[in-house]
Automatic annotation (TrEMBL), chain A:
PANTHER family: ACYLTRANSFERASE, TEICHOIC ACID D-ALANYLTRANSFERASE
High-level lineage: Bacteria, Bacillati, Bacillota, Bacilli, Bacillales
Ranges that cross the membrane: 7-26, 32-48, 53-74, 80-97, 138-156, 225-249, 301-319, 357-378
Pathway noted in the entry: Cell wall biogenesis; lipoteichoic acid biosynthesis
Topology versus the membrane: Multi-pass membrane protein
Major site of localization recorded for this protein: membrane
Keywords for the protein's UniProt record, in alphabetical order: Acyltransferase, Cell membrane, Membrane, Transferase, Transmembrane, Transmembrane helix
The family this protein is said to belong to: Belongs to the membrane-bound acyltransferase family.
Function: O-acyltransferase that catalyzes D-alanylation of both teichoic acid and lipoteichoic acid (LTA). D-alanylation of LTA plays an important role in modulating the properties of the cell wall in Gram-positive bacteria, influencing the net charge of the cell wall. Catalyzes D-alanylation from DltC carrier protein.
Enzyme nomenclature, EC number: 2.3.1.-
Name used for this protein in its record: Teichoic acid D-alanyltransferase
UniProtKB/TrEMBL annotation, chain B:
Keyword Ligase assigned: yes
Entries under Gene3D superfamilies matching the protein: ACP-like (1.10.1200.10)
Alphabetical keyword list: Cell wall biogenesis/degradation, Cytoplasm, Ligase, Phosphopantetheine, Phosphoprotein
Record protein name field: D-alanyl carrier protein
Domain Carrier: from-to ranges: 2-79
PTM notes: 4'-phosphopantetheine is transferred from CoA to a specific serine of apo-DCP.
InterPro entries with a match to the protein in the record: ACP-like_sf, DltC, PP-bd_ACP
Annotated organism of origin: Gordoniibacillus kamchatkensis
Amino acid sequence: MVPYTSFAYLGLSFLLLLPSIVAGLLGKRVRWYDFALTVAFVGIMFAGNREQLLFLIGYTVWQWLLIKGALAAAKKPGKTYLHYLLVGLSVAPLAAAKMMAVSNPLQTFAFLGISYLTFKCVQMIFEIRDGQIQEVSVWSFLSFLWFFPTLTSGPIDRYRRYRKDLQERLSPASYRLLLYEGIHHIFRGLLYKFLIGYLIKTYLLSLPLLKAATFYGICSYMYAYSFYLFFDFAGYSAFAVGFSCLLGIRTPDNFRYPFLSRNMKDFWNRWHITLSHWFRDFVYMRITMLLARRKLIKNRYAVSSAGYGALFILMGFWHGLELHYIVYGLYHAVLMIGYDGFERLNKRYKFWPGDRAAARAVSTLLTFHVACFGFLIFSGRLF
Amino acid sequence: MDPFREKALNIIADVCKTDEVIRNPDVPLFESGLLDSFGVVELLVLFESELQKKIPITDFDRETWNTPNRIVAELEGSR
């Protein structure tokens, strides 16, 4: 069963979560039940797909060994190469699965959610090295990694944040607030994914006009697809955040009205937020930090551009090794570097009155179309 | 002013390229656009070389380290 795609799944989730909700309203937390739920949901998601389930288990054991290795390595600091070796080994299954998906789609060993689990594991290895995570029990690792509301497609939570929520004792009153928030999110998920997304897919994306290889046809497809992508994915994320809330976990939100962004930097703080923030913290900032600390490149703008280039090209590869994904990454790299340069120049010469209402409207409109064109590349419709 | 505080504020002013952060140490740095991810990297590099404070990147969360005053307080807390 793929999560959040059918009423049957939603109904079953709600039913199985009822004991947790009742306990929460009484100010209690039944951790063993919540953990059993996680295991049960892994079973439900991979039912009828034994091969994927075995890959998931093998993958989890592999990552657990790497985490153990990272914890041991952190006791003897200074071994930088060891840290990057561990990061490489942690990414290796995902990279191999992506490569096999291109060369031999039927023989790949990927499973639903592998990309998102990899973010969680790499992040833990980094934070163990930085000394922010000092110990990890196998239960909290499993409960974090397999946390079922977000298992297949995020949002990408952070281990320390998750653990804080897991250990917090919620009073009945504060649980009730969280419950309302969760229900609110679930209803938004229904509206976005099951209503708006479904309608766009059924009545717009299937129109013959949108399939025509004319300029007008491709343009119409571009806007319809962009809105479909948003409502489908934001709806999914709202479900994931909503069900997390019912379990007392405040999974971070993934979208904040991305089509109202004022510029591309703003856009990446509103679109697939947990993904872009992951790349910001673990790719962009690490690379710029390394370059700035060693003074490898003198020019600050060049340092920042190198960081953006690495971030978005890697993000493109993460989506898949197909050409359109890589071009999508390059497109955003160019946009970000360009915008960064514009921002720097404007700080000095102040030629663009960005705070005026009219200027705001123009930049919001422009950003919207530029973002939609990105989704058109992403869709694979062009090449 | 406490010399540690003065040094830290000067670093922040240097990175944000404005003395406003010294005049108004409660200005929200991210909302006002004075600081971005690259600025954070520069801050962390300077804190390490000038103040001998090594702050991991993921410790610098933007809600906590939001104003010059908060940054100085966090730095002092880790002294």
